[in-house]
Amino acid sequence: MEQPKVLKVHGLDLSYFTGKLEAYLRNKGLPYELIEMDTRDFKRCGKATGVAQMPQVEWANGQWLSDTTLIIEFLETLHTQSSVLPEKPDLRFMAKLLEDFGDEWLWRPALYYRWANSQDARLMSHRLADGMMRDVPLPFFMRRWAILNRQRFFFLWQDGVRPGTAKRVEGHFLETLDALENILKKTPFVLGHKPSLADYGLYGSMFRHFFCDPTPARIMRLRAPAVHEWVARLWNTRLENYAGVAFENDIPAALVPLMNIVTGEFFPYMLANEKAIENRQSRFEFNSKGTLFKLPVQRYRAWRFQRLRTRYQALDQSTQAELNAHFPELAAQLNKPILTPIECRIAGLPISSPSKMKGRTW
What we know:
By secondary structure, the protein is an alpha+beta fold. About 55% of the residues lie in helices and about 10% in strands. It has helices at about 15-30, 40-50, 70-80, 90-105, 105-115, 120-130, 140-155, 165-185, 195-210, 215-225, 225-235, 255-280, 300-315, 315-325, 330-335, and strands at about 5-10, 30-35, 55-60, 65, 285-290, 290-295. The protein is globular, with a radius of gyration of 20 Å.
């Protein structure tokens, strides 16, 4: 399939998933142009794909790519050199699992730190009013007010952030930061000495939010300097330089604290979300270490978790046994049957007809 010489990436330079995709394209050596969205371009992209989210990639012949997970999967099939997927099935599965975790578990604390802290919110509302909303014919202070209130409503209030849950949301960040520090003070990348899909999944939040926004950036510098160094390292990495470096033979022992979060918090959250969708509920409750969250269901996350379970159940018995030897909780959680398959209508390959799924925004 013919690929444009320069990919047109429509997004923002403060966007969670735009940062994830940019890091991958830079590392892979794939030329791209970042087109900073305004509201007009955001609507144009959404009309082309049926998905209100960023980033979106303009392909050849009027076709489009959307959703960073599926974009990276597609580009990996076209550019097999310097793959970010380990060859060994157990490590390959772990890379995909940690991408899901990074994308979906860290979303709430990333948006919390950006919009709950007054210093961060002032900075980011200014940037969005001056950038994303630059084409809106309103005075600057009104654009900034609209952005601030929109983001706080959708990404704090609607997403279960209350005075009684805020400390636990901070805990989600701090615990993950500590677990990553445990890994990255031993090896340069999450699965060892070579970048993998796991790095990119964790990068979106760790780069564009926790590394760049004032409050979490200060925490990262002081609490997790190895994570801080990894963020800069991955941005400056070229995968061609790792062509002669093999992925690890074994699952790193340093992953255990991070996987304790995955199996103890992330999987139960994803299962509760999926069960609520099966029961045709619009909201559900999730207990995180004694803190009760009341949350909206997310069909996309349910699809991701069902896909992860399907991948695990398709592994041969020896690979499953290897994974379970390191993380005994995996089998019970990932062998759960899929009772109500959830369709994903998001477009991850070049398409000519729009999808119908509402996606995530900034």
